[in-house]
Every structure is written in structure tokens, then in C-alpha cells.
Amino acid sequence: MPAVEASAISVRIGASTLLHDVSLSLEAGTTVAVVGPNGAGKSTLLRTLAGELKPSSGTVRLKGRRISSYSAGALALHRAVLSQSISVAFPFTVADIVRMGAGERAGPAVAALVEAALAEVDLEGFRDRIIMTLSGGEQQRAQFARILVQVACGEAAQGPGVLLLDEPTASLDLRHQLDVLEIARRCAARGVTVVAILHDLNLAALFAERVIVLDRGHIAGDGPPSETITDAILEDVFGVAGAVGRAAAGLPTVLPHAARPAGRDKSSPAGGAHH
Amino acid sequence: MSASSLAGLRAGGHWPAALGRPVAVFGILGTLLIAIAMVAATIGAAGIPFGRLMAALGVTAGDPAFVGRDGLVLWSIRLPRIVLAVVIGGLLAAAGTIMQGLFRNPLADPGLVGVSSGGALAAAATIVLGDRLLAASGVTLPVAVLPFAAFIGSLITTTLLYRFATREGRTSIATFLLGGLAIAALAGAGIGLLVFLADDRQLRDITFWMLGSLGGATWAKVEATAPFLAVIVIALPFVARGLDLLVLGEAEAFYGGISVERLKLIGIVLVAAATGAAVSVSGVIGFVGIIVPHLLRLSIGPGHRLLLPASVLFGGALLLVADTVARVIAAPAELPIGIVTALIGAPFFLGLLLKQRSLLGL
Predict the structure, then answer these.
(1) Residue pLDDT, tens place only, B11-42
(2) Is residue A271 in some structural domain?
(3) Of A162, A189, A217, B164, whose Cβ has the fewest other Cβ atoms within 10 Å?
(4) Which residues in chain B touch residue A100, judged by CB atoms under 8 angstroms apart?
(5) Does B252 contact A at CB distance below 8 Å?
(6) Residue B168 forms contact with A (CB below 8 Å)
């Protein structure tokens, strides 16, 4: 049974179709990167898989059950979501925020989880700092620690679940980008299904066993990095040509230095490899 | 995330992890409230020194020359007023704290953004129109009807405000404050219209709303409002965790396991009930809902589990101080309490606004 299964989901808001007939099936414990140009529908896909956005047509199943049949509380034990930028309205400490991941649970076990999560994101010295006083990247790591606590609590209650990350590396320095993806990979090794939106194709190739390329609401490529991060797809979807090289272990690398703008009619209403 | 910590989690362990801090907070606030109430009971047109206060309360045996008179002053004038001030202060502070959590905004106050005005409009309409409707049958309007009318008025204004200021799960602080201003103006116009229609006796009653006063406190008014406070205090633990997570945003609260729509519905009803009940007996008293949660956040932190009940206690204490000042500062005349809270609260609000300017984009 796949951990997440989307069958023919479309999301329409007003006159625009943000996702068009997207189907995918994710086995438990896989690492998946979602890539694509701005406005391709990556966040929409993530929010739909998270059960926050109801698809206009099609269904999302989480561990075999329709996602809309879960209550908010039950859903939180099966899937956790890290949003892109979270603004905190009141002066909570970093430890307060991370502890929120545990829900109603408390006690020494939760305290240990909070400490472990803070250590994982390299924020041990920040536990009593007011979150607003941290830099953007540090705040993002604190939120990631909260999500890690939620994942651990969900795992304890319901077994490994699904972790959805919306650009988890966006405001981080290189070292912490690698750290965050490494942590996500360790979650996957325990059986958690990890889906991350990534803009850096090199990080995507490094992190994910499977890369889903989205273009204007369609899936333009789906497979291991060596099959999805190719000159053909990059030219088609991103409009750059000749940027892909090969690093050790056959992983594709994308070199902006080698890229040149590819000839592509940007104004065509729908395009991509699926046609 | 070691296996052993996961195992510990499975074994359970629920809330009362740090019982020490809540006990200390409630102990301090409770003591403060009782101390202020004692002082308030001794002060007034007929002074009752502390020794005679104990006798009048029946705690000690006192000089029978005073006990009778003191007891009368205490039980029929001073105590109802003290209890009412505490109840109203608790209601207003709870309304402010819940509202700030719902709107994710420390500047929210039911008095400031038209929720109190909406309640006052409904109460005024009930006085004027209800009287006319009932005049034929010869029945007088019972006191207990007003809190419900004001509750409905507050509910309508809070819902309107929420619809107005929130789009796609985000609340704009600027739209919220400006929208609230407009709603308050609209409700003010409605009250003006009712004043125009009112007869002399109704006019006196309505004027009293617009100023905000605890004068004329009776046990009947306490009985009409205390149940609202009781219901709200009972409901607080059920919204605390939701409001904590809502601080991160609506989507994040949902991801964290909160049924956001239900939380908002309960929150709005609680705000309206608290504000409506307060307004129906004391008129529009502003700023309590801003000062109390802000000061408490500075001292005990923003976690709602502690903040909400602490607000009720501290709000009661603060309004009791304000009311006692209003009673004695211009004795034998009495200052409307709304003036006292505005004199303290408005500069406080401006200071907060100055600190939050960047959030508003001003």
C-alpha cells in the first residue's frame, strides 16, 4: 500500500487551473523532490497532499484512506508539513515553538524529544531565545525542529508517516541546507515518506531517490534524478539548455555556467514533455 | 530522536508536567485580587476601616453600633460593585486575550474595534424597541435579557469583522483596525438613532452605556453576568492549545492537528459572549482587553494555557482598581470608569502601536 496516492487530482481556483490531472503514488520511506519553475504548482501539490487544499476533482489517499476522512487531529499524527515562511505573532521562545509539535503530550519524553530536535537542527543554545529575535534561517530551523517533534510523536502513535517540506532549504546557509536534507533522509531511512519542494536541482539530485518535475500544473517528469534532471527536460521545462553534467556516481549536476537560454515560446498556454 | 525517547512517549505522560509555575501565577494573582478587593471595600463615601470590615463580614465580633450600618453598606452597595467589577474585568480581559489570539494581533480589543459597540447597539435597541413592544402588555423588560441581546450584537460584529479582515487564512492588521473603526462608527450611528427615538427614561439608560460605568451595581446584575464568566472559564482550556498553534498561522495550526474552523467558531462565540455580557451591565469599557494580556505576556509568557485564566484574574483586579479610582478621585461625584481605563489604556495602546508599526507597514 503506497503511503501517499493521488489519483487524477486537479485544483482549480477561479478561472485558473493550478494542478491538472496529477497522479502519483509514493511508497513508504522514499525521498521525493518536487522541482519546477515558479508557478508550476509545487506548493499547490504539497498543500493538496497535506489535506489542506481540497482538489476540485480526483482523490488523495494517505496510507490507503481518503485524506478527507481524517480529522485534523488524526491527520497530524500521520503527516507533518513544514511551510515556507512562518511568522510568529507573539513572543514565544524557541523551546515553546518546538514543543508545539508534541500537541497535548508533555512530560520528560517530550522534553527529551524537544532537546534532541533542537540538537539536530543545531539550535541547542537557542532554546530560551524569543523566536522573533532569530535570523530568518534560524527561525526556519526552529520550525523544522517543531516538525521533527511532530513526526516523532506521530511515529510513536501511528508508525512512520509522511513529511512534506516546502522549500526547507530556502533561507539556509549551505551547511544547514545539507544538514536539513540529511535529517530528512534519516527520517526516510526509518520509513517516513519525505516529499520536499526544492529549487536547487543539485540538492534535489543529491537528496532524492525520485524527482517529480512539475510544469504549469502538469507532471513533466517523474523518476530517479538521472532520468528526470536531463538536458531535454530542463530545456523543455526551465528553458535552459546544456546545463547538465555528470558528477561521480552518475548523479546529474546542473551548471548554471554552462547554461544558455533555450528557445521556447513562454506564452504558450500549456506545454511540457507530457504532450 | 532516539528509540528510547520514542518508547517513553508511547508510555504516555500528559500535561501536568510543570505544575509549579501555574500554582505560583494563580497564587500571586489571586492574592493580589483579594488584597485589592479588601482595600476597595474599605474605601468610599462611608469609610469602613479594616477592623470594622472584618466585623461587618461576620469574621470577627465588632462594635454593634457599627456592624448594622457597615453591613448594610457593604452587602448592598460595596460588595455587589466589587464583585461586578471583578466579573466584568475578567470578561473583558478574556475577550481581549481570545480575540488577540484569533486575530494573531496584540492590538485587538473588543472595545476598540466595534465589538462592544455592536453589543451596546443591540442592548440599546432592546431597551427602546423592547419597551415599546412590551408596553402594550404591561410587562417590564427583565435584566437578564440584556446580556443575551448584547451577546447577539457582539456576535454579529465579531463575525463581520472576521470576514472583513481575513482573506485566505491571513488577517491583515490594518484592515482589521480600520474595519473595526468603521463598524464602531456604524454602531455609534445606530445608537444615535435610538437616542433620537428614546424617551427620557430610556435616554438615561442609553447614555449610561456610552460612558461605561459600574454605578448602580446590584446582585441581580452580578447574577446576570457571572454565569457567562463561568462558562467562559470552563471553555478556556479547550481553546488554549489551538490558539497557541494559531500563532503560527491558520495552515500551520491545521497541520498541527487543530480543527481551525471549529476553533474560530468557538473563539468568536466566546469573545462575543464575554463582551456582550460585560457591555450589557457596564457599558463600553475600553482597553482592559489590551493592557491585561500584554502585561501578562511580558511576565508569564504568551502560552495560552496559562495566559487565558491569568487574564481573567488580572483583568478583574485591574478593573477593580480602575473602578475604585473612579469612585474616589472626584468624590462625592463619580467618574465614569470608561474614562479611567481610557486614560491609562490609550497611551498604552499608542506605545504598543509604535512598537508594532513595522507590522502594519506604516
Answers:
(1) 333 333 345 688 899 999 999 999 999 999 88
(2) no
(3) A189
(4) 244-245, 248, 256
(5) yes
(6) no
Asked if B9 lies within 8 A of A109 by C-beta distance, the reply is yes
Q: Looking at the structure, do residues A183 and A260 belong to the same domain, yes or no? A: no
Q: Which helix (H) or strand (E) holds B118?
A: helix B115-125
Whether residue B66 lies inside any domain: the answer is no
The pair phi, psi for residue B361, each rounded to 5°, is: 70, 30
What's the total number of domains in chain A?
2
Q: Residue B168, by phi and psi: left (phi above 0), alpha (psi -120 to 50) or beta?
A: left
Do A210 and A253 belong to one domain? no
For the stretch A41-62, pLDDT in tens is: 999 999 999 999 999 999 999 9
- Could you give the maximum distance between any two Cα atoms of chain B, in Å? 76
Residues A98 and A213 in one domain: yes
Given pLDDT bands bounded at 50, 70 and 90, which one contains residue B46? confident
Domain extent at residue A161: 4-229
Question: Does residue A221 form part of some domain?
Answer: yes
CATH number of the domain bearing residue B347: 1.10.3470.10
What's the length of chain A?
Answer: 275
CB atoms within 10 A of CB B14: 10
Interchain CB distance below 8 Å, A105 and B259: no
Q: Tell me if B279 sits within 8 A of B264, measured CB to CB.
A: no
Test A155 with B6 for CB contact under 8 angstroms. yes
pLDDT 10s digits, A187-230? 999 999 999 999 999 999 999 999 999 999 999 999 999 999 98
Residues of B with CB below 8 A from A96's CB? 301-303
* Chain-chain contact of B245 with A150 (C-beta, under 8 angstroms): no
B72 in any annotated domain: no
B247 contacts in chain A (CB < 8 Å): 88-90, 92
For residue B288, give its domain range.
Answer: 79-352
Interface touch A116/B5, C-beta < 8 Å: yes
